[in-house]
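Propose amino acids for all 86 sites.
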């Protein structure tokens, strides 16, 4: 295996799954919410994407912190509401 192939297929350890999940979830949700809320509040104008990106710069770190903070509660709620395999 070449070093280029090894670099491409390298993955993070499984122990980072909760943080990686929170990062992707917050990044995607922040983009969607910024686009929706910017459009709803200001309409789609010539500066729509710029305004949405400016909102994203605040929303993404905030969303990541919030997802990490509520993760234990959400895990508990899922455990209480979803059947486990018998």
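Proposal:
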């Amino acid at each position: 295996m070449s070093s280029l192939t090894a670099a491409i297929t390298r993955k993070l350890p499984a122990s980072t799954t909760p943080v990686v999940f929170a990062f992707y979830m917050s990044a995607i949700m922040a983009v969607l919410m910024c686009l929706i809320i910017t459009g709803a509040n200001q309409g789609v104008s010539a500066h729509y994407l710029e305004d949405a990106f400016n909102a994203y710069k605040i929303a993404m770190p905030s969303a990541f912190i919030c997802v990490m903070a509520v993760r234990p509660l959400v895990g508990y709620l899922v455990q209480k509401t979803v059947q486990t395999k018998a």
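The mean pLDDT is 92. The helical segments are 3-9, 17-42, 48-81.
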